[in-house]
Amino acid sequence: MAQLPAIIPVSLLLSAFVAFLVGTFSRSLVYPITLLGIVTALVTAVMGLIRVLQDGAQHYYFGGWPPPLGIEYVLDHLSGFMTVLVMFIALLSVIYSRRSFLQEVPEKIVPLYSLVLLMLAGLTGIILTGDLFNLYVFLEIASLAAYAIMAIGNDKAPVAVIRYVIMGTIGACFYLLGVGFIYFATGSLNMGDVARILPGIYGSRLIVVAMTFIVIGMALKMALFPLHIWLPDVYTYSPSAVVALIAPIMTKVGAYVLIRMLVSVFLPNYLTSVLPVTLMIGWLAAVGIVAMSIMAIAQKDFRRMLAYSSVAQICYVALGIGLANPFGLIGALLHILNHAFMKGCLFQISGGIRYRAGLWQIPQFAGLGRHMRWTMGAFTVAAISMVGIPPACGFFSKWYLVLGCIDAGNWVFAVVVVASSLLNAVYFFRVLEKVYMVPSNNDSTVTAASDPPGEMLAPILVLASGIIILGVINAVIVTQILEPIVSLAF
Amino acid sequence: MFQVLLDHYPYYLSTALIVIGVWGMLAKHNLMKKVIGMNIFQTAIILLFISSSVKFGATVPTFDPKLGLENTALYVNPLPHVLMLTAIVVMVATNGVAFAILLLIYRRYRTLDEEEILRRMRE
């Protein structure tokens, strides 16, 4: 099974084409094919992660050309962890999406599902590739597919998405420029090879420029404050099941690229000594956490509130990267995992409310807690986790981030992480109060609402119980998977 | 000073094009002009990569029996060209998606002026 790293994106890519071809003849077959492709990729990813935990990193050389000549796919702790996460969330979101798509955009499910598969192929490609230029190509495959599926929405979605196209293209092109400068300086595009050559030419100005371009490019892709302006509109106007799929994983993959650069290409010692780029990321993230949490408090639209909260949460990940010490990096990686579960759950709940009651304005939610018991129960769990109350998993990633801040002696960051929990509490407890405490004003849409159908409720409940389970077993994840990743870098 | 300019002029030109492109994407109000800015930006990157592989007096990178394989200075570096072929494909696809979305916007709002569209979205 030496081909394990390649099977994951290839199976998704293949099923994307099969789904489209078969779908033009028979629409009902698209969903089973999509599910089959994703399950294949998920099973392969889990097998890969188990192998990595037993025998260490797996390498696959395309066409049998060893690096630095050929393109290499690497399945190590970091990429194994990320592929399993992305594919697991994708599986739940796709199960969830069927009923939602049938209600919101019934005539477009064939292109929608094939593009979803194409996007997932791109995302897993980004995660698994060991080649800098190949990463750019997959980045654009994933982004283009995402632009297309997000533009299928209401009348406002295309306007929001064209801004995303512009900002996303600037991001990708900056990344490409950065890769170009690395190539001019080292003559290689393989990550491992570049990491071997770089220590000899650390003084080179080309490397400084390359790093700056890559960081700005990926900051655009992961919507790091203040480059997040495209995100709230896109998450508000796109179909709810699309957002439930994209919000938990798309920006995380941008953060993954930054972590990959930190761990496998440039080493943290270099970044902190020659160029204070990580410190800059950290400060932007700290400002972003506070500013975006306040913006989230100001929103009346539930989806928009979640979108601003997403920007704030991705800033926690960036803060962990910015600290550039072991605890900070563990906190960032753990928060990628936790936030994917929390935001996946929250956006699915938001879609569920829209599916059953057609509501998205928070003031209209009064009394929903009595009619959508399971959904709102899951929402309570996710909200508790977002605020950071143990045993929900959100507490533990913040705990590691605070440890990282103390380790770095940066008290401002520590205060920001702790204080922002209070801001999170403000905007989530505000919704909880509306849902449970405020008496229903006998609005017919609220009294007629019930839990969404089992196909949509099951993923929500799996994610909600996952939030608690992750909190309980977080020590296992940290020691087994995250510590080997961090030991590579420090 | 003048010699530096002469030696490096492709780099200065592509930098200027990059700046023009980014300016177009950020400052113009017409969405079509933004996409044109995007195009200029992408083309500038292609030029930058290609100009990095220039070797004077070298030929196309296919094996020529008369030149042999010993002296690599006789062949142009093929890798940037290959990379940019892929990048061109990616950029064509990006433009395709962007134009498709512009078409959607134009059919719904009958204009491509960003401020006008935003004004109508608020209504």
Please characterize this protein's 3D structure.
The complex is a heterodimer of chains A (490) and B (123). Chain A is mostly helical and 490 residues long. Chain A has a domain of 195 residues. Helix content of chain A is 78%, strand content 2%. Chain A contains 21 helices and two strands. A two-stranded antiparallel sheet of chain A has the order 1-2. In chain A, helix 6 packs antiparallel against helix 8 and helix 12 runs antiparallel to helix 13. The longest helix of chain A is centred in the last third of the chain and has 32 residues. Chain A is globular, with a radius of gyration of 21 Å. The two termini of chain A are 31 Å apart. Chain B has 123 residues and is mostly helical. Chain B has one domain: Helix Hairpins (Orthogonal Bundle). Chain B has four helices and no strands. In chain B, helix 2 runs antiparallel to helix 3. Chain B is elongated, with a radius of gyration of 21 Å. The mean pLDDT of chain B is 87. The chains are: A mainly alpha (490), B mainly alpha (123). At the A-B interface, helix 5 and helix 6 of A face helix 1, helix 2, helix 3 and helix 4 of B.
Quick take:
The complex is a heterodimer of chains A (490) and B (123). Chain A is an all-alpha fold. Chain A has 21 helices and two strands.
Write the layout of secondary structure elements.
The complex is a heterodimer of chains A (490) and B (123).
Chain A: H1 4-25, H2 30-55, E1 58-61, E2 72-75, H3 77-104, H4 109-128, H5 132-151, H6 157-186, H7 191-197, H8 205-221, H9 231-237, H10 240-265, H11 268-273, H12 277-297, H13 302-323, H14 326-357, H15 368-371, H16 373-387, H17 394-407, H18 411-437, H19 444-447, H20 454-472, H21 474-489
Helix pairs in contact in A: 1-2, 1-4, 2-3, 2-4, 3-4, 3-10, 3-14, 3-20, 4-5, 5-6, 6-8, 6-9, 8-10, 9-13, 10-13, 10-14, 12-13, 12-18, 13-14, 13-17, 13-18, 14-16, 14-17, 14-20, 14-21, 16-18, 16-20, 17-18
Chain B: H1 2-27, H2 31-52, H3 79-109, H4 114-122
